[in-house]
Structures are given as structure tokens and as C-alpha cells.
Backbone:
């Protein structure tokens, strides 16, 4: 999307503070019509029972989000906005995932070479060779060469812009939106759902 800023400024320079018919037509041609042609995706991140009232409810978390307050705006968005694609993500880990304390010291996980040679103290952060990664984004697993299926789906549908909403804005929603920007999608974060 390329907006002709200079020609729009010239068109709106009569300085009266109101759009006349010529100015409206110009704004429609250079801004509104290209925006309306965008292929858009709504990505609803981690709106799932565990985060609403289950074992990982976020209402009392650091972001103090109340999932119940997001339901009405989310439902209205789903009904009123003609997205090209709607995607729902779900936070999920296999029973033996490294994020569960019972499995963080399993012998099948080998420390990376750098951490094997340094003198470790309690509470040091360590990395593993080929770990079961913690994924906070729907777009990419980790910040290297791996991508999730979602990026491929968005590209195959020729999506230009993504709108991201969901639960845990401070973690998964933010990470997904940031990755959307890094991957070249026009990206908007929807604040109320």
C-alpha cells in the first residue's frame, strides 16, 4: 500500500478544515479504496478456557486482563468485519514439555556447549541443545529459521494485513503482532478484545 502523501497535501491545502467533493474523491482514491482492497486476516490468539477460568486464568495476572470483558467486542468484530481469513490459535504443550517443572531436568535434554563450560549458579538461565521451545507467538516458533504453519497460510491466502487480538496481550498477542510486522504484514493490534 502506497499513499500519495504529497498529492494529498496539495489537494487538502485550501485550509478550510473541511473536505469538499474534490478533496473527498482524492482521499477515496489514494487512501480508502486501496485500504478496502487489502486482504485481511483476524488472528485471535489464545482465547481458550484455560486462560479464561482454568488453570492459567489471566484475570489475576500481571496484565490484569478480564477475558469476559473481551467477549462482546470480539463477537461484534467477528460479525461486522469482513475479514478474508479468521484464525484462532491455542496455547498448548505436550505433557513432557520443558515448561513444566517436572520435566525441566530430564536427562534427555543436553545443555548447550556454552552453558556446559561456564560455572552455573542457582537461578541461572540456561539453554539446551535442540530444546522443546517455548512458543509465545503464533507466527514463529523461535527467532531463527523456523516458522509455524500460520505464516504459510497467510502467504498462500495473499494476506496483506493482519489484525491481532486475544488473551495475554503482554506475551502471546504482542509477540504475534511483532512477528507480523517483522514478516512484512501491515499489522494492527485490537485493544478491546
Residues:
Amino acid at each position: 500500500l502506497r499513499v500519495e502523501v504529497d498529492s494529498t497535501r496539495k489537494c487538502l491545502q485550501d485550509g478550510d478544515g473541511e473536505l469538499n467533493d474534490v478533496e473527498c474523491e482524492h482521499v477515496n482514491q489514494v487512501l480508502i479504496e486501496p485500504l478496502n482492497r487489502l486482504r485481511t486476516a483476524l488472528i485471535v490468539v489464545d482465547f481458550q478456557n484455560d486462560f479464561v477460568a482454568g488453570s492459567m486464568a489471566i484475570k489475576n495476572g500481571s496484565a490484569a486482563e478480564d477475558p469476559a470483558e473481551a467477549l462482546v467486542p470480539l463477537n461484534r468484530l467477528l460479525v461486522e468485519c469482513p475479514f478474508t481469513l479468521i484464525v484462532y490459535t491455542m496455547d498448548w504443550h505436550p505433557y513432557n514439555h520443558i515448561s513444566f517443572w517436572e520435566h525441566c531436568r530430564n536427562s534427555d535434554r543436553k545443555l548447550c556447549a556454552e552453558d556446559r563450560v561456564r560455572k552455573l549458579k542457582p537461578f541461572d538461565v540456561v539453554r539446551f541443545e535442540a530444546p522443546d521451545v517455548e512458543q509465545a507467538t503464533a507466527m514463529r516458533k523461535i527467532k531463527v529459521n523456523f516458522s509455524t504453519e500460520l505464516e504459510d497460510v497467510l502467504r498462500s491466502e495473499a494476506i496483506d494485513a493482519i489484525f491481532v487480538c486475544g488473551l495475554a496481550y503482554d506475551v502471546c498477542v504482542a509477540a504475534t503482532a511483532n512477528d507480523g510486522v517483522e514478516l512484512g504484514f501491515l499489522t494492527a493490534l485490537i485493544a478491546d478484545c
